[in-house]
């Protein structure tokens, strides 16, 4: 008969240490990280403002730059929000929970800790035509979760939304 009560448990690998180190580095260089992700953004009164998660010009999405709330964001148009990792995952159209390794990899890349993955493609710029940049995006999926349509909103100057 075998007694397993005295067996030393094997520790499970954790990314928490790496996660917290990357988070701290992201927050210490937050303004430059956000300018890399959202070139159309601007800094105003301790916040970084950009139109949406796609990086369109505007001020609907705001990210706190200072204090203990640094890295927290809210998009007033969509109601989305979260921490810096939620922001990165939304920007890359990833799920922060199931795709966290990819989110963490891209975050490391943003702070210069790792080269970009060969298979990783950066999110395409919004379509530009006579209407200007897209100001919102909605993705529609079928019952199985497969993408079936994407609808973009445009707010051309001097015209109605389209």
Describe this structure in words.
The structure is a single chain. The chain is an alpha+beta fold. It folds into 2 domains: 95 residues, Alpha-Beta Complex (DNA Primase, Chain A), CATH 3.90.580; 39 residues, no CATH class. The protein is 25% helix and 20% strand. It contains 4 helices and 7 strands. The strands form 2 sheets. It has a 5-stranded antiparallel β-sheet with strand order 1-2-3-4-5, with helices on one face. Strands 6-7 form a two-stranded antiparallel sheet. Strand 1 and strand 2 form a beta hairpin. It starts with 15 loop residues before the first helix and ends in an 8-residue tail after the last strand. About 6% of the residues have low confidence.
Annotation keywords:
single chain; 162 residues; alpha+beta; DNA Primase, Chain A; two-stranded antiparallel ribbon; 4 helices; 20% strand
Overall pLDDT level:
81
Approximately how much beta-strand content do the residues carry?
15-25%
Separation of the first and last Cα atoms: 74 Å
The best one-word shape is globular
Largest sheet: 5 strands, antiparallel
Uncertain residue ranges: 7-16
- Backbone CA Rg: 20 Å
Q: Name the helix and strand elements from N-terminus to C-terminus, one letter apiece.
A: HHEEEEEHHEE
Count of strand segments: 7
When the domains are counted, the total is: 2
So, CATH architecture of the largest domain?
A: Alpha-Beta Complex
As laid out across the biggest beta sheet, the strand order is: 1-2-3-4-5
List the quaternary state of the chains: single chain
């Amino acid at each position: 008969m075998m007694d397993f009560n005295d067996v030393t448990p094997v520790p499970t690998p954790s990314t928490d240490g790496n996660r917290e180190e990357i988070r701290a580095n992201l927050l210490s260089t937050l303004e430059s990280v956000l300018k890399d992700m959202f070139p159309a953004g601007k800094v105003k009164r301790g916040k970084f403002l950009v139109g949406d998660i796609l990086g369109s010009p505007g001020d609907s999405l705001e990210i706190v730059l200072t204090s203990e709330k640094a890295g927290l964001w809210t998009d007033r148009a969509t109601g989305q929000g979260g921490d810096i990792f939620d922001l990165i995952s939304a920007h890359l159209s990833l799920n922060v929970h199931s795709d966290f390794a990819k989110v963490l990899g891209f975050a490391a890349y943003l702070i210069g800790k790792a080269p970009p993955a060969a298979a990783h493609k950066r999110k395409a710029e919004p379509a530009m035509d006579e209407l200007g940049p897209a100001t919102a995006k909605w993705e529609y999926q079928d019952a199985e979760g497969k993408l079936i349509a994407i609808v973009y909103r445009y707010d051309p100057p001097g015209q109605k939304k389209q």
